[in-house]
Design a protein that fits this description.
Elements: H1 2-19, H2 22-30, E1 102-103, E2 109-112, E3 118-120
Antiparallel strand pairs: 1-2, 2-3
């Protein structure tokens, strides 16, 4: 029963706020009229033309610092280059090695388990 009452209350609040905002409902209830445009008060501005503008200076930095290098505009062709290798790439497999084995820089054969550990040939179970 409580759930039904809560659902009716929520549906009622959504229905009230659907066409008119709750602020408009409260203003109408209080008898206030909402104005569309607020009058803009004109103020006189202080003459700032006679005050020279000071450039921003970072304290502790040389004014003759070398300029920052600009980012080069690249067309992104390097991404699709098959010879492009990064440290995140898996090492290329040796064609002469058996399936599942790799060769390190010393020429030793190894395989990589599911946790990413290297197991060198002859040191345990092979894949």
């Amino acid at each position: 029963m409580r759930l039904v009452c809560e659902l009716i209350l929520i549906i009622g609040l959504i229905a009230l706020g659907w066409q008119k905002s709750f602020k408009q409902w409260t203003d109408d209830w209080r008898g206030m009229q909402q104005t569309k445009a607020m009058p803009v008060r004109q103020t006189t501005a202080v003459n700032t033309a006679s005050v020279p503008r000071q450039p921003f200076v970072n304290a502790g930095y040389s004014r003759n610092a070398p300029p920052r290098p600009q980012a080069s505009a690249s067309n992104g062709g390097w991404m699709w280059d098959p010879a492009h290798r990064t440290a995140l790439d898996q090492p290329a497999s040796d064609v002469q090695a058996s399936a599942g084995y790799y060769r390190d820089t010393a020429g030793r054969k190894y395989w990589i388990d599911s946790r990413g550990y290297r197991h060198y040939e002859g040191s345990g179970a092979s894949p």
